[in-house]
Amino acid sequence: MTTVSDGERNIELVRGIHESLIAAGFEKFRLAAVNAKNWDDSIVRLPEAVRPLMQVIDPGIEIDTRHFPLPFGSEGHWVGREQWLQFWKTWLEPWDEFSYEVSNFDSAGDDVLMDLAITARGHDSHVPVEWVLSQIWTVRDGRIVRMRPYGNREEALAALQQARGSGSDPTDGE
Q: Between the CA of residue 70 and those of 39, 47, 65, 87, 91, what are the distances in Å?
């Protein structure tokens, strides 16, 4: 009998969310986030196949970009599902088109490291943009509790290494 490690389970959870969003058409997620009045409204607006996946987003979800300023004034710290939605609204609203691919999944304890290749087109400028970055998603008890973006895989790996060496969170903003 083969057993699956917690790290493998965490990778499959994070990968499954992204693969489902991509398969359902990420544009539908983008429109749901941009047009939603609140978390519950965003769920109703999602494709039916994706709705159950949102239940793995912990009510206390945290997005921390204090160490990595994103475009459009998205640097900051968001906590809770309503703020999770606000982050995605801020991040996705400026685009007419937005798609991405995920790759290079690795785990370290509760953390899942992955790379993203983003392709987008600006709403006002119509300028195409391609961007590669990395993210660390933290999974506890089968729920996504945190997401932190990094400019590249090396920065994300350094944050994980720092946390492992110090025994603290690699991106707690301190």
A: 22, 27, 7, 11, 8
Helix spans in the chain (H): 6-24, 26-35, 39-45, 81-92, 153-166
Supply 127's token pair.
């300028």
Q: Can you tell me the distance from the alpha carbon of 17 to that of 56, in angstroms, rounded to the nearest whole number?
A: 9
Residues in the chain with pLDDT < 50?
169-174
Task: Check residue 174 and report its DSSP letter.
Answer: -
In the prediction, which pLDDT does 105 show? 97
CA pair distance 65, 91, nearest whole angstrom: 12
For residue 45, give every residue at least 6 positions away whose Cβ sits within 8 Å of its Cβ, in sequence order, or none.
Answer: 31, 32, 35, 36
Alpha-helical (H) ranges within 25-145 are: 26-35, 39-45, 81-92
Q: How far is CA 63 from the centre of its chain?
A: 8
CA–CA distance, 99 with 111 (Å, rounded to integer): 24
